[in-house]
Amino acid sequence: MIREETERTEEKILSPYAALSSKSKGRARPEQKCNIRTDFQRDRDRIIYSKAFRRLKHKTQVFISPEGDHYRTRLTHTLEVSQIARTIARSLRLNEDLTEAIALGHDLGHTPFGHAGERVLKEICSLGFKHNEQSVRVVEKLEKSGRGLNLTYEVLDGILCHTGEKKADTLEGRIVRFADRIAYINHDIEDAIRGGVISQSELPRSCLNVLGNTSGERINNMIVNIIENSLDRDEISMSTEYREATEELRNFMFENVYIGSSAKAEEGKAENLIRSLYEKLVEEPGLLPGEFYCKIPEEGIERVVCDYIAGMTDRYAVNVFNTIFIPARWMRF
């Protein structure tokens, strides 16, 4: 079978540190193997065909409701993370299919309105909220009408550990953690400059001297640095100089773009919208769609409302808010 030949090829050509498809820890629910695709390839395909993946195109990355067509969304961010991660994995002879699956699934649990939505849900939901944990919940419990995608352990672990203190068990998962940061720092700089929030001249010169002057230069240099410092090693890392420059540039973005900038002026409205929806739906669960309402006895009202809101796109959240809180026009002919 083609799958078995692919698995044998992995064993021959991949690094001894790579996660092999044939050695996966498996799925929560055992399944018959595909004749064509490896387990990690199947996981990648399941994520791409999921409803949650399609919704990413209408979820905020940084800029809420941008007028221009060229600002990133959560979907384009995900695709850029996948491209960066695959390049690193291929160069290190690690499992590119596993890396791609993790990258494509890492933000499936993100809220509408980006981190503003995440911040509000974390604040008002007694269960807490972290988008990486919600991404796992999406693929385990919410997709396929509650059946989930039944992904392999390695993909779930990589999605969970793409942010936070815990490192992924696989090097492929650790690559995605780096790729996520490389992608968002650089494309958010591009979008912030395009939007007039910052200028090229304001970027810290000490960082540019190390990483590069343009987005393309920085991404390429950061990828090359990771490859050079991780080749034939059981770890994924940057050099100290690059790691410190990357962290300094990230801090600059938090201070000048992510917090308090003109680009974030609409976040207060978004936060109030999410808060209002949450409180209203907890108070009146009958307003929930039937597919969510029926889960209340098993999951509890807060969990269900949190799942419902976290899965919304920006525009759907606005539409639901308008339906609940804005009086409909009354017309008589």
CATH homology superfamily of the largest domain: Hypothetical protein af1432
Tell the overall outline: flat
Note poorly predicted spans: none
Tell me the series of helices and strands, N- to C-terminal: HHHHHHHHHHHHHHHHH
Count the DSSP helices.
17
Whole-number count of domains? 2
Beta-strand content bin: under 5%
Kindly state the percentage of residues in helix: 55-70%
Top-tier CATH class of the largest domain: Mainly Alpha
- CATH topology name of the largest domain, in short, is Hypothetical protein af1432
Largest sheet: none
Q: How confident is the prediction overall: mean pLDDT?
A: 95
Q: Tell me the span between the first and last alpha carbons.
A: 68 Å
* Class of secondary structure makeup: mainly alpha
From the alpha-carbon coordinates, what is the Rg to the nearest angstrom?
21 Å
Q: How many β-strand stretches?
A: 0
Give the name of the CATH architecture of the largest domain: Orthogonal Bundle
